[in-house]
Amino acid sequence: MNTWPLRLTPGCDLRAALAEAVRLQLPTGSAFVLSGIGSLEDARLRLAGAEAATCLAGPVELLTLAGTVSPQGLHLHASVADAQGRVLGGHLLPGNVVRTTAELLLAWSPEWALGCAPDAQTGFTELQIQDRR
Predict the structure, then answer these.
(1) Buried b (16+ CB within 10 A) or exposed e, 8-27
(2) Do strands 112-118 and 54-56 pair parallel, antiparallel, or not at all (unpaired)?
(3) Which residues in the chain show pLDDT less than 50?
(4) Where in the numbering of this chain does the PPC domain appear (predicted)?
(5) How many whole angstroms separate alpha carbon 88 and alpha carbon 112?
(6) Cβ-proximal residues to 63 (8 Å cutoff; 6+ apart), any chain
(7) pLDDT at position 132, please?
(8) Alpha carbons 102 and 7: distance in angstroms, whole number
(9) Share of the chain above pLDDT 70, in %
(10) Which fold has domain 2-131?
(11) How are beta strands 112-118 and 125-131 bridged, if at all?
């Protein structure tokens, strides 16, 4: 397994910039996000079981970020804290703009390719793992 530290800069959309960096820099086009910290202008999350986005007015601290990136999409979970220290977590949606920095650690392996496809059992798009050995 290989690791790759990545810093995203102010003004970029966290999801879009992460997807583009993985697409351009990693040979499999996929990675696991092991950790992520930083700050966001505002937070856009989908909470457990919810259909709609929840927006937390910023600035907010990005406390954790973890998940998967594949050519077919991203599945990221995050926790964020507001100025009073209240913490909220859920699925990271598009529209999370980096405020000062987003510092990520990614892991990837040339032996494994990640993807996502509809899963009949769950009704959601789920992780698919391809062994390339």
Answers:
(1) beeebbbbebbbebbeeebe
(2) unpaired
(3) none
(4) 1-130
(5) 32
(6) 37, 78, 79, 80, 81, 87
(7) 84
(8) 6
(9) 100
(10) 60s Ribosomal Protein L30; Chain: A; (3.30.1330)
(11) antiparallel
Backbone angles phi, psi at 22, to 5 degrees: -65, -45
Task: Give me the amino acid identity at 93.
Answer: L
DSSP annotation string for 40-82: ESSEEEE-TT-SS-EEE-S-EEEEEEEEEEETTEEEEEEEEE-
The reported pLDDT for the residue numbered 113 is 87
State which amino acid sits at residue 121: Q
41-79: pLDDT as tens digits: 999 999 998 989 999 998 999 999 999 999 999 999 999
**Residue 56, amino acid:** L
Cβ distance 104 to 33 under 8 Å?
A: yes
Residue recorded with tokens 């999801």: 15
| Alpha-carbon torsion (113, 116, 48, 42), positive or negative | positive
Q: Are 62 and 87 in contact (CB under 8 A)?
A: no
Mapped onto helix, strand or coil, the DSSP state of residue 9 is: coil
Neighbours of 72 (CB within 10 A): 14
